[in-house]
Amino acid sequence: MSKLEFKGVTRNFHAQKVLRGVNMTWNAGQMYGLLGRNGAGKSTLMKIVNNRLFPTAGKVLLDGKSVTENADAQNRIFLMSAAMLY
């Protein structure tokens, strides 16, 4: 069983805090959605999962192992942007 865990994920852009201590767990076989207004940090969080950005603090774990600079974990994660549709 796979699970993706967010532990205290924080991301700052200069003085602006975009994510503040995100804690949650996503389990395999479940569907999750991120809802929020523009600028709430949804895309930033997904980019952290996919190593397109790195957290200022905290960590993202896939089955207990960090996804940061982890080729095995990244081979199991795919992030598709709208640009890839066209």
What does this molecule look like?
It is a single chain. Helix content is 19%, strand content 36%. With 86 residues, the chain is α+β, with helices and mostly antiparallel strands. A hairpin with a 2-residue loop joins strand 3 and strand 4. It has a four-stranded antiparallel sheet with strand order 2-1-3-4, with helices on one face. It has helices spanning 42-49, 71-74, 82-85, and strands at residues 3-13, 16-27, 57-62, 65-66. The chain is globular.
Q: What characterizes the major β-sheet?
A: 4 strands, antiparallel
Termini gap:
33 Å
Total strand segments? 4
Mean pLDDT score:
91
Report the structural category. alpha+beta
Number of helices: 3
How are strands sequenced across the largest beta sheet? Answer: 2-1-3-4
Radius of gyration from the alpha-carbon trace, in angstroms = 13 Å
Shape, principal axes of CA atoms: globular
Unreliably modeled segments: none
SSE topology string: EEHEEHH
Helicity range of the residues? 10-25%
The share of residues in extended strands comes to: 35-45%
Question: Which key phrases capture this entry?
Answer:
single chain; 86 residues; alpha+beta; four-stranded antiparallel sheet; 3 helices; globular
How are the secondary structure elements laid out?
Elements (H helix, E strand, L loop, with lengths): L2 E11 L2 E12 L14 H8 L7 E6 L2 E2 L4 H4 L7 H4 L1
Antiparallel strand pairs: 1-2, 1-3, 3-4
